[in-house]
Specification:
Helix content: 40-55%
Oligomer: single chain
Radius of gyration: 25 Å
Number of helices: 16
Strand content: 5-15%
Shape: elongated
Order of helices and strands: HEHEEHEEHEHHHHHHHHHHHH
Mean pLDDT: 92
Low-confidence stretches: none
C-alpha cells in the first residue's frame, strides 16, 4: 500500500480519469472507514484493475478503493468515531476518530505493508476493457435491507429471519417485494412499533432508524415479541385466503394484530377490518397521504400507526 499510494498520485504512472469510472471521493466516511478497518482485520480488499497505454496505468475498476487508501495515508480523513479497537497479536489498539498519523506505529505499519492485488491489462483494446468492466460489475447490488444483515446482532436475526419466511407474506407482498427481502425489514419495523414508548421512539423507518434499532434490540430482546408476531401471522394466514396490501402498511397491520391478541379482542372482527381496509384503500385519500412520498418519516409512520391503533381500539 505504501508504494501504491505514492505511485497513484503520479500522473506519469497512473491515470484516474478513465471514462468508465466515477470520479473519486464517491464514498461516505463510514464506507472509507470500513476499507481501512478491513486491513486491520486482515480482510482481503478486492483487486484494482487498469489497462496500460504508453506506460501509464488507466484505472477502470477500483478508483474508490485506490484513492481512499491514498487519502488515508495523506491524513485527509479520520476513521469513524465508533470504530472498535483493533487486536494485533492480542494487543488492543484504538482506531476510532484517528487519522493515519495518529495511529500507533503498529497499525501504521500494518497499513503500509498491506498487499493489494493489481490486474494490469497490456495490449487491451477499448472493447476488451469494456467487456472486462461489464463482467466485473455484472452483479446486482445488495439492497439496504440485505446489507443490514451484516450489522444486525445474530440474536436479532434469529428472530427476524424465521418470521420473515412466514407464508402470509406471499399473500400480501408482490414477487418483487419478496425478491428484495423487504419482508425482513417489515418484521424489524413491526418490532420497532412494539417497542416504541415514552422512553424510546422507534417510528423512523429510514435506514439509520432501522440500523440503530436492531443494534439496540440486540441488548433488549423481548422473546414474546417474536412469538406474538408469529401467532398473529398464523391467524391472518388461516383466516385470509388472498389479499394485497401496500407494504408500508404491513408493520402497522401486524402491530395492531398483536395488540388485539394481547388485549383479548375479537380477532375475527379484526380480520373484517383488515379486509375493509384493503377494499377501500384506493379511495381513502386521508390514509393514503401517509403512504406516498416520504413513507419512512416519523410523521408518515405515526399517521399510519394511529389509523391502525384506532381500528384496534374500536373493536
Amino acid at each position: 500500500v505504501r508504494n501504491f499510494t505514492q505511485d497513484i498520485r503520479n500522473p506519469k504512472k497512473y491515470n484516474l480519469h478513465h471514462y468508465l469510472q466515477r470520479k473519486e471521493d464517491q464514498w461516505t466516511k463510514p464506507q472509507k472507514s470500513l476499507l481501512i478497518d478491513s486491513i486491520f482485520c486482515d480482510i482481503r480488499i478486492l483487486p484494482i484493475c487498469a489497462s496500460i497505454e504508453d506506460g501509464i496505468r488507466y484505472v477502470f475498476d477500483g478508483i474508490q478503493r485506490g484513492t481512499t487508501l491514498a487519502e488515508y495515508m495523506e491524513d485527509k480523513f479520520a476513521i469513524s468515531k465508533n470504530n472498535p479497537p483493533v487486536l494485533v497479536d492480542n494487543v488492543p489498539y484504538e482506531t476510532a476518530g484517528k487519522k493515519f498519523s495518529q495511529l500507533d506505529q503498529v497499525l501504521q505499519d500494518k497499513i503500509s505493508n498491506y498487499e493489494i492485488t493489481l490486474y494490469l491489462y497490456t495490449d487491451a483494446t477499448d472493447d476488451d476493457v469494456r467487456k472486462i468492466y461489464s463482467r466485473l460489475n455484472n452483479g446486482k447490488p445488495l439492497t439496504s435491507t440485505q446489507k443490514r444483515t451484516a450489522i444486525e446482532p445474530k440474536a436479532v436475526s434469529n428472530i427476524v429471519f424465521p418470521i420473515s419466511e412466514h407464508p402470509f407474506f406471499e399473500k400480501v407482498l408482490t414477487k418483487a417485494n419478496l425478491k428484495s427481502d423487504i419482508n425482513r425489514d417489515l418484521v424489524r419495523e413491526t418490532l420497532m412499533l412494539l417497542n416504541s414508548n415514552d422512553e424510546h421512539d422507534f417510528t423512523r423507518f429510514n435506514q439509520k432508524g432501522i440500523d440503530n434499532f436492531v443494534l439496540w434490540y440486540g441488548d433488549n430482546i423481548n422473546e414474546s415479541d417474536g412469538t406474538d408476531i408469529i401467532d398473529t401471522l398464523d391467524l391472518l394466514d388461516e383466516k385470509i385466503d388472498e389479499i394485497k396490501i401496500k407494504h408500508p402498511s404491513i408493520p402497522m397491520l401486524l402491530y395492531a394484530g398483536v395488540q388485539c391478541q394481547r388485549e383479548g379482542k375479537d380477532f375475527d372482527k379484526f380480520i373484517e377490518a383488515v379486509k375493509r381496509f384493503a377494499e377501500s384503500y384506493e379511495s381513502d385519500e386521508e390514509y393514503k397521504k401517509f403512504c406516498t412520498g416520504g413513507t419512512t418519516s416519523s410523521y408518515a409512520v405515526n399517521g399510519r400507526l394511529d389509523y391502525w391503533k384506532n381500528i384496534c381500539n374500536n373493536l
